[in-house]
Amino acid sequence: MAQFILTTANAATTRRRMPIRRGAVNVARFRLEGELPKDVKRWLQKGLGKTAFEPIDPKSEDERSAGFVELERSDVTEFSSAALFFSQHALFAWRVDKLKVPTNAIRASMLAWVNAFEQKNGRQPGRRERAEQKEGIKKMLRAKQDPVTKLFEVSVDLTSHDVFVWATSRTVVDEVQASLESCLEVKLTPRMPAAFLPPGAIDALSPTPELFVENR
């Protein structure tokens, strides 16, 4: 699991990097390593398109879908220059959809069906009948269920090659890092606190020998 720094800041101090729409955020910072293509903007557009978000098919068994979307239009994956680039920054989002039928809804529907079955047939349904009905109920409820959507904003500084992932979840940050490395074919190096310190600074913060002197 990738290591990264999390720093808390308010919207006033972070708005210089991207249009954060919440009062407080956590930021994971990375650096794009290696030589980037000359046409960086085209490279980003093409790369993000490879991992663009795709909606969950209600008829499938998938419960989760994730991918990149435009920042201002979370249902669009065109990544046009006007929507993606702002001055020397590329701004977009990582969208995660989850579609799962609540267990209590399935249980309530099954209970109502069992009661109706017993009244009609004078017996309890068998195991196979229960399984078939449960599957049918799950598909019916799933078709009516709307997915839960979460958006995590991402910023790429085209000058410094710094990447900022605005998320509190380490799992999400790791997922965004892996996806960017795959679709852009680059290496993202976490910007650790030690990277900002001068040589010897960490040693200077170590406990002094006096702390280990036994009382006599």
Topology:
Blueprint: E1 6-10, H1 11-14, E2 24-33, H2 40-50, E3 64-70, H3 81-84, E4 85-86, E5 89-98, H4 103-121, H5 127-144, E6 148-157, E7 162-166, H6 170-184, E8 187-190, H7 201-204
Helix pairs in contact: 4-5
Q: How would you describe this structure to a colleague?
A:
The protein is an alpha+beta fold and 216 residues long. The protein has two domains: 6-99 and 146-198, no CATH class; 103-143. It has seven helices and eight strands; from the N terminus they run E-H-E-H-E-H-E-E-H-H-E-E-H-E-H. The chain has helices at residues 11-14, 40-50, 81-84, 103-121, 127-144, 170-184, 201-204; strands spanning 6-10, 24-33, 64-70, 85-86, 89-98, 148-157, 162-166, 187-190. Strands 1, 2, 3, 4, 5, 6, 7 and 8 form an eight-stranded antiparallel beta sheet that branches. It is elongated.
